[in-house]
Amino acid sequence: MEKQKYISVNGRNILIENEKNVLEVIRKANIELPTFCYHSELSIYGACRLCVVDVDGKGVQASCSIAPEDGMVVQTNTSEIRTIRKVNLELLLANHDIQCPTCDRSNNCKLQELSSKIGISQSRFKKTNVNFPVDDRSESIVHNPNRCVLCGDCVRMCKEVQSVGAIDFIHRGAQTRVAPAFGMSLADVECVNCGQCVSVCPVGSLTVKPEMDKVWDDLTNPNKTVVVQVAPAVRVAIGEQFGSEAGTISTGKMVNALKLLGFDKVYDTSFSADMTIMEEVQELLERKMNKGQLPLITSCCPSWVKFAEQYYPELLPNLSSCKSPQQMFGSVAKKLLPDMLGVDKKELVVVSVMPCTAKKMEAKRPEFSHEDIAEVDHVITTTELVKMISNAGIIYNELLPESFDMPFGFKTGGGILFGNSGGVMEAALRYAYEKITGETLIDSDFEIVRGESGLRTIEVNLPESTLKVGVAHSLSNARILCEQIKNGQSDIDFIEMMACPGGCVVGGGQPVSFDNNFKKKRTASLYNCDKQLQLHKSQENPYVSDIYKNELGEIGGEKAHHLLHTTYNSRKRISDISLDVRNSVNHKVKVSVCVGTNCYVRGSQELLKKLVVYVTQNKLQDMVGFEKQEETVDVSATFCYEKCDRGPVVSVNNITIEKATFAAVKKAIQIELEKCRIDMMV
Amino acid sequence: MNTVIEYESPITRKFNAVVEILEKYEYDSSRLITILQLVQEEYRYLPKEVLPYIATALNMPIAEVYGVATFYAHFSLEAKGKYVVKVCNGTACHVKGSMPIVDALYKKLNLTKEQTTTPDMMFTVETVSCLGACGLAPVMVVNEKVFGEVTPEKISEIIDDYLENKEA
Q: Which active-site residues of A does the annotation give?
């Protein structure tokens, strides 16, 4: 047996197991080292210098950045260490725009907490007078650089876990701040609105874009009938902000609070999640039967959808055309509730409570508004609901449980599972099993699709066939699967994608938790919610069946399609930047070649080079007035015509050429030149 | 790959140069700084429009490329003049009077601390921390040419020489 290794922490020997750094070992000694920039799921950055310890023979070191060695002697609480921590915190405070009473993160702020724990009574350093503009143009996220402590958690989350990299450190020294490229707004870059940056931000620099005021306005307007849908993941997290342990289920109290706030009806998004299962499984089976495009990929997660639209437009046909449960609820509510509740459609307001920041962006997509009426009017996050409850002075913990309203408050366990990674897949399997085999599923649990791993492919054995499924959470894992599909290395039938690491239970709109096990606890609670219900399979939801019988007709039929399905479009990553390659001023023919990611890989760069050579070499001297063609034809590189699946895309004046070849563009240029020549001769 | 180009306008040449630089470094994102340096040599600065192109070609986030480009003082995202005048303001030059030289340049070229490039894109005036030629203090460099023991009086003459070259 290998000799066990120990380090000495304040005189006590602590066993080294598989910890990658001294900090993790020290935590086992029940000592909480202060940190801003250390997150076990992110790379080690060592910037905040608060986890400093004294290592015998090595001096003061950041414990996150050194590996534990046998026999190491570590002190965590010498007077030198305490002074260093204090000075570092004071310096951060000098840089921080202290607005605690009005800050979104007051009482849940690492800087506040550590200042108090470490005992800062004053900040001796002069305040910096830097005043950066606040970016509040994104639908989901507000970014206030003046509160940033430059820990870089958001930057690494976005780049490493989500593989998006919408933000980074820009400039240097005292001018350093976190921002998107060119200091643009988050609304104009590749941000997928997942809000994971908000989840890791230790202070109030990145916060959720609030929509509470709009909800209050409608709640207090006597002409409006306001209904609310609550997503499954909200019920296992909301209690945390009222002092309960992570993962506490408080569905009944939450419903009661919503009624006290004045919502006319309280419904459950799990109801429409049950509908999503019906439509999505139908789509899967149809594609399997008709040899349609596989794998089918879920489309419930708006961040994943935007990610796919930006980076993998060629896979958009693989996305399920089903709307997400939030939007299915909205479209069904706006269609059926006016009659059911006897209200004018224009006076009906649908509010969503979501664990998710991206749902705000989803609700505002133009596809989800019809004749100026949005399917979902306002989206608030779990944390916003907590604020509204506090605003109203409701003592949450004292509330008695209330029940959801019928019929859209009724759900099966299948609909509940949507909040967990693997949950949509499990709910789908519960239906697909019965559809494929024609048998009744006795034990509805599919434990094999559960788990924490961010990328799982599972073969589900059915009596006469197998279904190969994939589950991915975190967009970096989604990217791995997408690459495999693109390269033809995938024989998966059905994939569930969720952007947040662990699924909706850890969405960007959920309370920020400093409990190290909060993900596990919330996930386990959601599985318990399923167990507490009598029905577990979406297809058993009697009210969903009623809607199909009375309103929608067949599952996957024409009416259902009209109400419950949508389309996707490829999108550019960054708006409105084009690169003038030739800079001719008085051009008559403008040729723009897309060099966005997708056209680029389809060879647009080669095409661009050839075109530049062509227009400079061929002076077409036989054409009257075109001795200097290089002055007549302007070539520029541009970023994205949003037709990425049909790239390379080139525009010649107003003509757009998809799947452009050199010959095709050349011909178009010649036609345009000919037109100009005729114009000039006239 | 080698494209034989018989005629090239200067701007075309630059774009092709960017492509060639990327090819030379095999689209390796770990060579970003070198690539940006060479691209800056072509354009005399890093045009905003080129950065997304480089980022796309290197398969990295645009924000990261922008972060690198703004981190190093060496990189400029603003177009610079044909002649970049760098006045040393290191300790030795500073005590020997580098700031009056900067003032003289500003006056001669009608520039300010905020506007450091002439509208005709001929001159850019900037200060640097040390050119390592303290024995010649105060020192000034125009593009690659070094001027030692500069005085405010000499400024007008030096600039005029460059302006005459322009006429020529």
A: 280, 283, 300, 320, 359, 362, 367, 504
